[in-house]
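Hi R.,

Here's the input for the nicotinamide-adenine-dinucleotide complex you asked about:
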Amino acid sequence: MSLDERAHKYQAFTVKPGRPLNKNTATMAPSFEGKVAFITGGASGMGFAVAKRLADLGAKVAIGDINWDSAQKAAASIGHACLAIKLDTGDGESVKNAIAQVEEKYGGLDFAANCAAIQGAVGPIIDLEADDIARVTAVNLNGIIFCLKYEILAMKKRGGGAIVSIASVAGNQPMAYVGPYSASKAGVIAITKTAAAEVGADHIRVNSISPGYIDTPMMRAAKIEPSWAAVRTPNQRCGVPDDVADLVTFLLSEDAKQIHGVDVPIDGGLIVGHSVRPPGY
Ligand SMILES: NC(=O)c1ccc[n+]([C@@H]2O[C@H](COP(=O)([O-])OP(=O)(O)OC[C@H]3O[C@@H](n4cnc5c(N)ncnc54)[C@H](O)[C@@H]3O)[C@@H](O)[C@H]2O)c1
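And here is the predicted structure with nicotinamide-adenine-dinucleotide in place:
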């Protein structure tokens, strides 16, 4: 094949900047009819999208969030059977109580998506204060460990289940000036693998996902615009919360029965990085 022919062939598969991608082409949506799902951080962004999707697919959903007002509004807007719970993932007793409320209301727990997190302090390590480090670690890492603990205990009573926790590209490729956040997210990936190794035989699947830029209140609070994010992402697109709902729903479903103990990127290629295209390609 000549160079020109190769160039033509590869161009045909290249997404050009600004060209919209097709919405996912999944054919059959899985059913969560009659199942119970607990979503932390479900009042906003990705957690809300996941909660809404699972409810639309038939699950009885409980949203746990530190922002009680938003959690109640989110639960009301989701409709179906949706319970709002006040939760601070950084506090083990709060997590324990939240799961107990889910079990009391719905009779058990089958699925969980651990989406709650904070970005915390932005700045170089030399400027970090003890409180900056403690709160991010408490919410983002200890919080996931507490959630895994009480979710696993509840799922063991049901004879199985599935859990997805949200890590980040920053956990795979730690970023400057958000050290505690990056370290906490690397910890999420590690504890997910630990949990998977421990509970596979209990028929509980445990995975994490690592989003790149996703247009949510957290991204906007970091002063990141979708257009800025898109040009820095290899597929030239900023993600949206529904992309994450697609992936989390898949990972929780039977379709993902052989996927266990992995971290799945959902980042438009951010972690891979851009490559410079040779002239003619
Ligand atoms: N938006 C991005 O670009 C991006 C990229 C990579 C990873 N993430 C991760 O994705 C997840 C979802 O983030 P998002 O962008 O949807 O953010 P978001 O701020 O829109 O939603 C986070 C939710 O978590 C809740 N929360 C915060 N602290 C809590 C606590 N201690 N206990 C209970 N709830 C708490 C907030 O009230 C909020 O409702 C987070 O784990 C985040 O770190 C986000």
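One thing worth noting: The radius of gyration is 20 Å.

Cheers,
M.
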